[in-house]
Design brief:
homodimer; 238 residues; mainly alpha; Arc Repressor Mutant, subunit A; Four Helix Bundle (Hemerythrin (Met), subunit A); 2 domains; 3-stranded antiparallel sheet; 10 helices; 3 strands; 4% strand; DNA-binding
DNA sequence: GTCGATAAAATTGTATACAACTAATTGCGT
DNA sequence: ACGCAATTAGTTGTATACAATTTTATCGAC
């Protein structure tokens, strides 16, 4: 899946494994935004020296998945509301643009692969495996964009999707956080019919739907309002 | 210009300076693709330890401006032809998309700023200052996209533009490598009239024009062909 | 108890020493 | 001269020690 290069070096591969572990843990919401990532702890966990951990952390910081504050260490990024909006707006541009360039490049096998991912996502959803559902939902989008045959575009979208899972972890309501199964299916159908312009439109709607399902207001716990409400209500034991 | 954050730390700032130096040297084609970047040399040049240099090099590698091969060090990236095509295709999607989202956000002052950059580029062109012309041409595109008010989008485009200067350095003909002055002016005019859809179309054409002006065939110096030609012609002194 | 300053602990930032690897050179045999 | 191994020089990869900084804990004074 993510094995793209021949991996010349064993050391290179070890770095990659640590990176993939952390990346997956973040995208699956097993590590929630704000979680601190002390270098010593990670080094001990992965059996590597801080030098290696540091390299991986900087890579994750570059991708916007963690934030490194000078002398204060790393923590899982907490996307701001404007940043989240920008990310979804950029995804709309890129993913719709990818669909528009896809005409004549999509084979029957490609469509089957998309359907398989979609089915797996549906399955995970039914089983209540939320982490798997989120991951497969992302994989659907990544795989879809890949059909445009533009490696640069694919990488940009993959990174934005990873950041999107941080957005969902921060602002998503506990239920119904992933794409609706039927919407992905609709996109597959439109592509199968060769209606790429319509598919692009639908994708735009789809992403807007996801964005709208988020709860922007809760960003800051709004300490003042919470306390006022608490005082107004029944003040239980301290 | 690039001073975005308060820069809490002096060390942080020192890293940034080294990064900016290398970044500018690459984008201005003062460091050409393929140039090797030994860590010791850079460390001595900038008066820093290899630890610092290493950090900066990895950042440049993430952005695709240099390539780090395991155990073999870093060198200025040499974009392949497919990669170059993908970069321009992605720029078309992003920059046209930015223009489409710009309606109602552009002030008269913004237009003046664009005109100023364009004039400066024209000036550099006339003076024969090729490095400045390339830099200002990139700045025009970056500033233009910035008017969409999407920071994520702006950063992605800025990175692709940096890589574009590597493409131009690799495949560009020595003359007429930058955007035509009149095309940028045309885009400004269309925006001033509020014709954002037309401006987006024109931007697409503009980027395609740049892409077409490149010489894809010369990628590998094609040793065999060159030698055959040499033997067939007049073989001068060895 | 609360607040403040001080001290201790924990954590990150950096330089450097050494190991591992690659590239270049030498030297030998044919 | 040529090819090929062995040696040497040069460069990168990593762990670690130490310095700098932040965070936590301690301890009086009010």
């Amino acid at each position: 899946m993510t094995k793209t290069e021949p991996l010349k070096d064993a050391a290179q591969e070890r770095d990659e494994i640590i990176y993939q572990h952390l990346h997956a843990a973040i995208c699956d919401s097993r590590l929630l935004p704000g979680t601190r990532l002390p270098e010593d702890t990670l080094a001990e966990t992965f059996g590597a020296s801080r030098t290696i951990i540091r390299k991986v952390l900087q890579r994750l910081a570059y991708e916007g998945l963690i934030e490194i504050r000078p002398n204060r260490g790393a923590q899982i990024a907490e996307p701001s509301v404007p940043e989240a909006r920008d990310i979804f707006a950029t995804r709309r541009i890129l993913e719709c643009g990818a669909l528009a360039e896809m005409a004549g490049k999509v084979s029957a096998a490609d469509l089957e692969a998309l359907k398989a991912i979609n089915a797996a996502e549906d399955d995970a959803q039914l089983k209540g495996d939320r982490a798997a559902a989120i991951r497969l939902s992302g994989e659907f989008h990544i795989h879809l964009v890949g059909l445009a045959g533009n490696a640069v575009l694919s990488e940009l979208v993959a990174r934005l999707i990873a950041r999107s899972s941080l957005i969902i972890a921060t602002y998503g309501s506990p239920i119904s956080v992933t794409c609706r199964h039927s919407e992905h299916e609709q996109i597959i159908d439109l592509i199968a019919r060769g209606a790429f312009a319509e598919a692009a439109d639908w994708m735009g709607e789809h992403l807007t739907t996801i964005e709208r399902s988020l709860r922007w207001e809760q960003e800051t716990p709004d300490l003042q309002a919470v306390l006022r409400e608490f005082i107004g209500g029944s003040a239980a034991k301290p």
